[in-house]
Write a structure and sequence with these properties.
Length: about 220
């Protein structure tokens, strides 16, 4: 079932209001039937190969298969989509002017290795993105807690993009546990959700223009 009954829909609207109070710029109710899962989303983790692939605990292939997530999603009856606006207006010219993703990523990766390195416009922008994600995590964590207290014990939050809580993830090959197990969240994309189409169905704009500000989207499944 994917229809939202009146009681759950009312509660989801209250959650949206709470998310706005906590700092979200937008929060909307979305029927589970409007959540688009597409295997091509996971393909984009591989082509071109994302640097987080198989190195980040919250990224593929260290998360459940898309087929398993599809079955789990069928059991949920409602969800909310949350948007956190970017703290920076747009990427610095050094990134925005890059034609290739590879060149842009190498710039970001090189300046994020050590916090103690000299601060530049790019490092400030890079850490601003992480701050955005942390703001989203805090909202997700608090909304999840509210749901559980109200008896919606299967409430589950999903984040946007690769987890950036650490400068470098411990990685699955280290055998070490996640440093932030109650804060880190798997991204929607890692589970196969087409964030662009899903957000469009919910009436939320997602802009990937090279000079546009980068916002974060999160989702909370509620049941």
């Amino acid at each position: 079932m994917s229809e939202i009954d009146n009681k759950l829909e009312s509660y989801l609207k209250l959650l949206c209001q709470k998310a706005l109070e906590l700092g979200a710029s937008e929060a909307v109710v979305i029927p589970v039937s409007d959540i688009v899962v597409d295997e091509r989303t996971r393909l984009k983790c591989l082509v071109p190969l994302c640097s987080f692939y198989d190195t980040n605990l919250m990224c593929p292939p260290n998360v459940m298969p898309i087929s398993e997530f599809r079955e789990i999603l069928k059991k949920y009856h409602g969800a909310i989509l949350i948007k956190v606006e970017a703290t920076s207006a747009s990427p610095p010219e050094e990134l925005a002017d890059q034609i290739g993703l590879a060149e842009a990523w190498e710039i970001v990766k090189s300046v994020r290795k050590k916090v103690s390195e000299r601060q530049t416009i790019i490092t400030e922008y890079s850490y601003a993105l992480r701050d955005n994600q942390e703001r989203l995590y805090k909202i997700i964590e608090q909304i999840e807690s509210l749901c559980i207290r109200e008896g919606y014990h299967f409430a589950t939050g999903l984040s946007a993009g690769a987890c950036l809580l650490c400068d470098e993830c411990v990685g699955v090959k280290s055998g070490l546990p996640c440093r932030y197990p109650f804060k880190a969240r798997t991204s929607m994309g890692a589970l196969g959700i087409d964030v662009v189409v899903t957000a469009k169905r919910a009436g939320i704009e997602v802009n990937f223009a090279h000079n546009a500000a980068r916002s974060c989207l999160g989702m909370i499944l509620v049941d």
